Amino acid sequence: MGKVYVFDHPLIQHKLTYIRRTDTGTKQFRELVEEVAMLMAYEATRDLPLEDTTIQTPVASTQTKILAGKKLGIVPILRAGLGMVDGILNLIPSAKVGHIGLYRDPETLQPVEYYTKLPTDLEERDLITVDPMLATGGSAVAAITVMKQRGAKNIKLMCLIAAPEGIEAVQQAHPDVDIYVAAVDECLNDHGYITPGLGDAGDRLYGTK
Ligand code: PRP
Ligand code: URA
User: Fold this and answer.
1) Where are the domains positioned within the chain?
2) Right CATH number for 4-46+71-206 from 3.40.47.10, 3.40.50.2020, 3.40.50.720, 3.40.20.10?
3) Of residues 62, 108, 120, 195, which has the active-site annotation?
4) What pLDDT is stored for residue 62 in this prediction?
5) Could you give the ipTM of this predicted complex?
6) Is pLDDT of 145 > 90?
7) CB 177 within 8 A of CB 200
8) Which residue numbers belong to the known binding site?
9) What's the CA gap between 37 and 12, in Å, rounded?
10) Is 59 exposed, middle or buried (0-12, 13-18, 19+ CB in 10 A)?
11) What is the position in ligand 1's atom list of the atom closest to the CA of 202?
12) Ligand 2 geometric centre to CA of 133 (Å)
């Protein structure tokens, strides 16, 4: 069963409060999502392997650590996942970015796939799938299934807010995938929205409502 990591860092929690608030406008919402994604990526990459290297400082030669060169990839689920990408790229500029386009049918709540473009060497990469919202889990489960069909072997899922239902769906469908979130909320409402949540992440990021 995949583990669930809930990041309780004060900066993440503080920024998430402002992300949730109705009176937070599009510009600030977008900036905060990017910042929280960066802070979460810092925590979610703690297990990256290091190797020794010998360097020359202006004072002496010394042995220090560098990343062992593991190839990384970020896969946002369009559209709202895009809002998390730049924050993560600030920390890991060499990561390749794949895209999976899915939207949730408002009636059936089922994910509808409309676009996929992923790095060709997917099987060699440690991948972080990103989407601000994990509600029913249908979109994340479908995105991870697409990635595995294309050869992905090592996948993490990073979301700002999850509902318990979404966590369970991902754990059932993809028990090898660890989930990283800033908050686990109470439940889904009758329209499949996370409660209390933050509303529609895509609309709030891009001002489409
Ligand atoms: C939202 C969100 C997730 C999905 C979560 O996207 O960004 O992708 O819903 O719901 P689920 O866990 O029940 O599948 P939406 O379908 O609104 O598309 P958008 O990002 O294009 O706005
Ligand atoms: N998608 C969103 O953007 N928000 C929710 O609460 C659920 C799905």
Assistant:
1) 4-46+71-206
2) 3.40.50.2020
3) 108
4) 98
5) 0.97
6) yes
7) no
8) 79, 104, 131-139, 194, 199-201
9) 9
10) exposed
11) 22
12) 6
